[in-house]
């Protein structure tokens, strides 16, 4: 994997001098990112002997084969299914099995209605684009997903304003400024859509949703300010039966739009089938105004069947054991790494930091995502060190995260046992100790050993 990664970062522009300028320009632009190893490239899949702290198979439904078995059973109950939807939802594609599945999902999540979309990305972007009217405003947490930003670009909303991440006071300030600047928000003739995520995929922290809901209710008693919440990383991982944050807090009636994704914890089919939970008004607006509903074919039978099979696993309680294992592994990792002799010095010297270690013992529900923050460019050094030690956890940098917030993002799963969590903590601390030694001038090289091996192509 590292060999392929390095090959993909070799400059190519100079070798394109005889090619059409169109392709040469593209390669030269990508060479800028290849030079500092920041080009996103397709990575080969590793086998199960590599410790997995990066995949989205949170509940191990995919690795264990449980989703495959449930999917095949579901197909067996409908032997004469038609493979294609053969049209969009506003044409021929609105078939009975799709509608039945949506009704089941609405019941599971205690929602009035549900609407299935080809991907969670499309569900987020499409909803943000289709729902706000001219004169409306979108207020969003500044850590929301790229799909929300894309939807906002297409939205008719007159204002798009961010508030500080997970900060109810900041949300209050933004909402008050909107009320003071436009009487339509006071009268209720214009609306506000507040965009948040239940679990933030890069920080691993949970939205203080109950606090935010209270702020909105207090300031907009007419109900013209409503929430859209992305539950992609909470689906299957938190809440009763893995129903997500809104279900855990019992706020189903306070959230206008919930977006769930089925390719992560549920291990559903190739594309990331998305579920929009809402009421009938929002559902009708999506069908009549969302481009994904009008200009693309409806999800096919196998896609819907696989998602339905995944939800049946949730309904049967098969997520709960995996959820408990994730909680146990994350807590063991945090307790092990913070107890290591090098931890305190490494944090004080700025070698690494794990924000989630702060008072984690008092947090009732930890998430499966644990970011290890590093200095800029050092995230690659840690990534190399982990890979050399047969552990996979990817380095993340700008623009996925803010500048200066580089990290290696750890993702815990039901298939990560306590021994693996302990190994992970030990290997990270070995790297931290080496970086401290380099800074103290105790080694001949300023590059850590794993990075030297990778750059020398010696494995």
From TrEMBL:
Cofactor: pyridoxal 5'-phosphate
Gene3D superfamilies: Aspartate Aminotransferase, domain 1 (3.90.1150.10), Type I PLP-dependent aspartate aminotransferase-like (Major domain) (3.40.640.10)
Pfam families: Aminotran_1_2 (PF00155)
Domain Aminotransferase class I/classII large: 50-427
GO biological process, one term: biotin biosynthetic process
GO molecular function, one term: transferase activity
The entry's keywords: Pyridoxal phosphate, Transferase
Keyword Nucleotide-binding in annotation: no
Family: Belongs to the class-II pyridoxal-phosphate-dependent aminotransferase family. BioF subfamily.
Name of the molecule in the record: 8-amino-7-oxononanoate synthase
């Amino acid at each position: 994997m590292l060999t392929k990664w390095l090959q993909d970062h070799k400059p190519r522009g100079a070798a394109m001098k005889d090619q059409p300028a169109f392709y040469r320009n593209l390669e030269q632009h990508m060479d800028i990112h290849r030079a500092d190893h920041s080009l996103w490239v397709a990575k080969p899949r590793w086998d199960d002997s590599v410790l997995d702290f990066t995949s989205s198979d949170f509940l191990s439904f995919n690795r264990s084969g449980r989703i495959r078995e449930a999917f095949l059973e579901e197909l067996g109950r409908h032997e004469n299914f038609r493979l294609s939807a053969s049209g969009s939802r506003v044409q021929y594609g609105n078939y009975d099995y799709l509608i039945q599945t949506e009704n089941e999902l609405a019941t599971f999540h205690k929602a009035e209605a549900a609407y299935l979309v080809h991907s969670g990305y499309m569900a987020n972007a499409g909803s943000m684009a289709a729902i706000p009217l001219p004169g409306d405003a979108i207020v969003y947490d500044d850590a929301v997903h790229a799909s929300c930003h894309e939807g906002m670009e297409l939205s008719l909303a007159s204002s798009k304003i961010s508030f500080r991440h997970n900060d109810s006071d900041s949300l209050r300030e933004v909402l008050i400024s909107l009320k003071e600047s436009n009487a339509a928000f006071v009268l209720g003739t214009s609306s506000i859509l507040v965009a948040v995520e239940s679990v933030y995929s890069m920080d691993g922290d949970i939205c203080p949703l109950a606090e935010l809901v209270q702020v909105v209710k207090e300031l907009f008693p007419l109900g013209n300010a409503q929430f859209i919440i992305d539950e992609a990383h909470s689906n299957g991982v938190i809440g009763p039966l893995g129903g997500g944050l809104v279900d855990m807090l019992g706020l189903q009636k306070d959230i206008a739009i919930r977006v769930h994704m089925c390719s992560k914890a549920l291990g559903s089919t190739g594309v990331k089938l998305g579920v929009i939970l809402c009421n009938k008004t929002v559902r009708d607006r999506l069908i009549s105004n969302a481009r994904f509903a009008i200009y693309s074919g409806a999800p096919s039978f196998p896609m819907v069947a696989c998602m339905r099979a995944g939800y049946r696993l949730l309904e049967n309680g098969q997520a709960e054991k995996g959820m408990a294992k994730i909680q146990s592994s994350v807590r063991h990792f945090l307790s092990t790494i913070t107890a290591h002799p090098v931890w305190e010095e490494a944090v004080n010297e700025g070698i690494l930091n794990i924000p989630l270690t702060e008072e984690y013992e008092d947090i009732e529900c930890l998430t499966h995502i644990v970011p290890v923050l590093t200095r800029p460019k050092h995230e690659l050094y840690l990534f190399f060190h982990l890979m050399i030690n047969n552990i996979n956890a990817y380095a993340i940098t700008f623009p996925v995260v803010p500048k200066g917030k580089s990290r290696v993002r750890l993702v815990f799963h039901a298939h990560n046992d306590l021994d693996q969590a302990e190994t992970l903590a030990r290997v990270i601390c070995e790297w931290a100790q080496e970086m401290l030694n380099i800074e103290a001038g105790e080694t001949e090289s300023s590059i850590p050993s794993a990075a030297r091996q990778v750059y020398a192509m010696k494995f």
